[in-house]
Predict the structure.
Amino acid sequence: MIYKVKRFILIFTLAPITLFSQSLLDKLNKIETDSSKNVMSTFKGTRISIGHSLETRKKNTLELSFMSRYWNVEQETSNSFAADRMCARFGADYGISDNLTLGLGIGTPNGIVDAYLKQRLVHQKTDNSGLPFGVSVMQSATYRTRSIVGIEQRDNFYDKLAFTTQLLIARKFTRNFSFQISPTFIHRTSSNFSEDNHNHFAVGFSPRYKLNNHVSIVSEYYYVANPLTSVKTYGAFALGVNWEVSDLLLQFTMTNNMIFNEEGFITQTVRNFNTRDGNFFFGFNAIYHIQF
Amino acid sequence: MKKILLISLFIWVKGFSQNTEFIERQGMVTFFSYTAVENIKAKNTQTLSLFNPKTNEIAVQILMRAFVFEKSLMHEHFNESYIESDLYPKATFEGVIEDFNPDSITQTKIIKGDFTLKNITKPVEIKATITKDKASYNIDGNLDVFIDDYSIEVPALLSPNISKKIEVKFSFKYVLYDI
């Protein structure tokens, strides 16, 4: 009993001494600080290469984007300089709040005017509290002034619309590797052929690997569960590089379509991905960031 | 037995009476990078610091994520590409104020210690002004950090945008630390 008391006294006595013999910095490190932060930069831009990433822009920032695709036509007689054809889209993406981004764009090949809203719903946390992934929802609407594949009716304004809803679910597994899964629902207001469905379900798979602090390689593939039946289509594929230079983000892409809008490239990609003329599209996006 | 108890109580009380530490929980640290191309400013108001006027020791912990920039993109690049705050979330300083006079109201002294950034520790000397109030101490000073010392890599293309020498200023107000 006495022994136990003595031992208690000894511990009791030495406790404050040992407590204060540690360095000031060790003591500082023990003070609780809020260590739960949102995981940053799962992807660099609002687009991975051709499709949307879950990233939104911060409040009061505007991004002006120039997207382009270049390709050769199949005829062997073509002798244009560098590329036979090109198309482009000009866009603006504005951060209404840190979690809500509004985007507008206009571009060729078929005079698509598009608008989208993207809301960040869930942030992945640095200390792994909460959900192990981030989630955004993206809703876009497009108006096609001209036809590409000719699958929609073109009688009135309403016929030329299409809507895409995407759930963008991504996890930054390591500091270099991120992966996104994007369940997608596409509604086209009209079909030229009765066998084509107005509604399409698709899912996108998009990995990213960061090579260094400024360069990453990305890829995207979209699988369509119920593709068009009037025309043979393929899943949209892209392989690209993102290069960040201060206020400028450059995205280089090799892909199998020339369309910049989700409803377009997911459902209406009529080329398989290979390097043959007509199938190979080189893409280049330049995105300039402005803070107000 | 009583004697032991008495002695132990004495040591115990003495142990606790050593607690003469002062704490700052919302210290301000700012840094500036001036170049012809671009000026970069950032401010952190969540710096944690302990100061012991008995031993003249000072310890500082700076959370890198807590730096606020004028441009949100700069914040992202700072954390992602330069400081890599996911790997190195904190910068720390541990040092001693040389020739500190606990009774003086205002004094300018050198703080000698080690500054750690991105897991690289370098000895630094900081000129600081220490002001004593009734129940608090103010310590203000500045320090030049050379990015090459701490393996902060700037791509050649962007080297005109970011100064080699970053001017860091700090302002801490310490109050007695109640455990």
Notes: The first helix of chain B runs from residue 2 to 17. The longest strand of chain B covers residues 39-52. Helices of chain B lie at 2-17, 72-82.
